Amino acid sequence: MRILSLAPTSFFGDYGCHVRILEEAQALKALGHEVTILAYFKGNDVPGFRVLRTAPTPWHKTYEVGSSRHKFAFDALLGLSLLRLLCRERFDVIHAHLHEGALIAGVLARFFKTPVCFDYQGSLTDEMKQHGFIRHATLLRLFGCVEALAEQLPSAIFTSTKHAAESLQRVFGKTKPIQHLPDGVNTETFNPRVLSPEARVAQRAAWGIGADEPVVAFLGLLAPHQGINNIIEAAVCVKNQGQRVRWLVMGYPSVEIWRKKAAAAGLTDEIVFTGRVPYEHAPRMLALGDIAIAPKLSLTEGSGKLLNYMAMGLPTVAFDTPAQREYLGHLGIYVPMGDSIALAREVLNLFDQPERRNLLAEKLRLRARQHFGWERGGMLMESIYTQLVTQQSGVRLPAEVGRKKL
């Protein structure tokens, strides 16, 4: 099949949403399908994939991730690019990411009778609230209507969590396919043995971390809804108890802002902010940690970074949310959402229990390998695509380029 992945974001950008887009495309390519990715003008190309981009806006050529008023212009340009592309080429399916992608594709693809699958990764209004983009009740209601329309238009929906799938099924019933499509991880790439003991000591030293110092790792967006404030608060609690723990915080944007906040809290020596970590370097950076932390403050978004932690054998302290429980299961160490004191307490408990850490590390890696491979995810997507193309067969024939016998 010829599949168009519509990504209303600056793909590729070394963080969770983009990793899911990439790994889905890789899984489909492994099954013999041809995947084209259409994204915003900014971002890194990915070897092995055709990535098309919008034109840049003349007034805002640099921007960071997250909600922004400029995204309205970016999405308008994305819609125009999609329209031009569909006039030139035929695709069997459009796999639209995020609510913006579902809305744009859901409207335009109807003119070309191309089925649209919506890759749901969390509530649009919840994300906007978490980013502080909208606060007024009227705007919340308006964007709530936009969110509902974006969910109504596509022919099928993939969700990153069971919780989201169940919520949407209560809304749509059996009117459209809603498939739980969990994030996956390559356990060969993300492997705790990616660094030799000597290389681990040397790389820790490069970041100013001692060979035997206990290290808590975080990898992801440096945004308030990811719980970065909670990491700083937990680090203060640990330091106030006279314990020496290093916190390796990897990601972007606003690194200098967070570094200043940590310094103001007296944590200059405790927290290391690495800045952006290229995806291919993530396994080696995560290998520097002893445990991981997942203080995400969203009840609707997925938490794919947990799979990387699991594959790396990193016992994880997490805020108690449905998505985090789906990934970690009974092997997670959960604390109430927003409770930085409990976060600090469980981090110290883990460092005091090396045998428990080792057992959790082994079981988490096994869970990642057994339950979260992308091979199954690729077949799930292929199955839904086939169902939708078959339903359209009375109107149009599937494009032949790159098509694999199913």
CA distance, first residue to last residue: 9 Å
Secondary-structure element order, N to C = EHEEHEHEHHEHEHEHEHEHEHEHEHHH
Helical content, roughly?
A: 40-55%
Strand-residue fraction?
Answer: 5-15%
Question: In angstroms, what is the radius of gyration?
Answer: 22 Å
- Backbone structural class: alpha/beta
- Which oligomeric form is depicted? single chain
Largest pleated sheet: 7 strands, parallel
Count all strands and give the number. Answer: 13
The low-confidence parts are 400-406
- In round numbers, the mean pLDDT is 90
Coarse morphology: globular
Strand order in the largest sheet: 3-2-1-4-5-6-7
Quick synopsis:
By secondary structure, this protein is of the alpha/beta class.
Give structural attributes.
406 residues, alpha/beta, six-stranded parallel beta sheet, 13 strands
Describe the structure.
By secondary structure, this protein is of the alpha/beta class. The protein has 15 helices and 13 strands. A seven-stranded parallel β-sheet has the order 3-2-1-4-5-6-7, sandwiched between helices. Helix 1 links the parallel strand 1 and strand 2. Helix 2 crosses helix 3, helix 8 packs across helix 13 and helix 11 packs across helix 14. The protein is globular and about 65 Å long. It starts with a strand and ends in a 14-residue tail after the last helix.
